[in-house]
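[audit] Reproducing an earlier prediction to check determinism. Same input, same settings, fresh worker. If the tokens differ from the archived copy the diff job will pick it up downstream; this log only records the rerun itself.
[audit] input (207 residues):
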Amino acid sequence: MKKDAYKKIAGRYDIFVEPLVKSLRAATVKMIPSRKGMRVLDVGCGTGTYLKFLKSNGYMAFGIDSSFAMMNIAKAKPENNVRLLLGDALNLPCSDSTFDLVTFFMVLHEMPETERITVFSEAKRVMKENGRILVVDYLPGPIQSVKGYLLKLVITFYEIAAGLEHFKNYQNFLFCRGLYSLIEKNRLSVEKKKISTGGNIGLFLIR
């Protein structure tokens, strides 16, 4: 059985991490408006905060995560009346061409490089023909302001605190040019993008 990397920190995740990404959640909705019946799969949904946000903005939200600890917290939230699946992003338990939008919210940098490529292929499989992939994650730069450099220090501290393996994956993600490399390797195109947090984080709507 795969070790649950979030077992020890799941109970504190919403307290320390969610407030830092609140503005990013709001920005994602502006990038792709909701429409009636729009089905969204949030891969790596964690404690379900983003799922709640998606549902409140009119989406039919579904979430999947491989962490028992994170999923238990998501299920315990009474306001999270969404479909939650415990499963692996490398082999999504979903049929082909099921979702209008697949989201990765600060998830891809946590994975080893080989897994990121497979996960992206799975997202393409479950996405409808005219669907989109929305990714929010770290950028390799350039940093755009003094505030951006300060935020970079905060981000580095959090990534180190998450553990050695986590930090190594984060470093590799930046070294491999992060989102840019994944988009190129999967022959996808960027429909919309927004650079946030002084150049540290990017929001990409991909097709």
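[audit] rerun output stored. Observation attached for the diff report: The mean pLDDT is 88.
[audit] end
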